Amino acid sequence: MTSPPTSSLEGWVVSSFTGGGLTHDCYEKGSGPGVVVIPEIPGLTPEVLGLADHLVDQGFTVVVPSPFGTPGREMSAGYTAGVVARLCVSSEFRAFATRSARPISGFLRAVARDLDGRTPGSGVGVIGMCFTGGFALAAAVDDSVTAPVMSQPSVPFPVGGARQADVGLSPDELQTIKRRVADDGLCVMGLRFSEDKAVSPRRFAALSQHLGDAFEVIELDSSEGNAGGFSKGAHSVLTHEVREGNEAMAARDRVVAFLHERLG
Known about the structure:
- The protein has helices at residues 46-57, 77-88, 103-116, 133-139, 161-165, 171-184, 201-211, 247-263, and strands at residues 13-19, 22-30, 34-38, 61-66, 124-129, 145-151, 188-193, 215-220.
- The longest helix is centred in the last third of the chain and has 17 residues, at 247-263.
- α3 packs across α4.
- The protein is of the alpha/beta class.
- An 8-stranded mixed sheet has the order 1-2-4-3-5-6-7-8, with helices on both faces.
- GO terms for molecular function: hydrolase activity.
- It comes from Aeromicrobium endophyticum.
């Protein structure tokens, strides 16, 4: 495999979902415990669908909300730039806000609760990536989410030291997550490349300080001359960088195992 896994919209059932005061289309497929996959920028691309279909093949019911972008459209520089420009000014996502709740989180919690109510297992998993990485943790404010996975969480955008260290939650949301870690045994997974400027190591350090041993970190080496052959610009751990037998694929395998462990 010389390119990342991709897939299409074939077989996915789309329906409109309203929750948290927002309405977006959601795509669903599979059977078994539930997992919500939140697309990375620029949206529900063939690479995101490749991850989603892999999870279906691993025995999960997968729901993919589509809060931005055009489902099924391939990534391109112009397409990505247009989506980023819209997201930067959207009050739904608050891309630069620190210590802040984001309206999209309420929608994602509602999606998770709905999925949990009609699938087997102990709660649901939520995977966020890139722009949406931190939204997976924000979704875990709701008790239905028992396996949050933050892959390269990039919001708030790391402009300045305060944003680089911000964990993407309001103080109330953070306290709820910390309570769930202490009382419910909540565990959180985080993934990043070592040289990824979009995800400061200060953010992961802050998360580790707050969550302690409940925060499982996978950091892939992307420094110059790394054994995996990743570029210094490597970013998308679970999609664009996955190749047969490489460390990104191993990280994807660990995410699948984490979901099975936590969801039962």
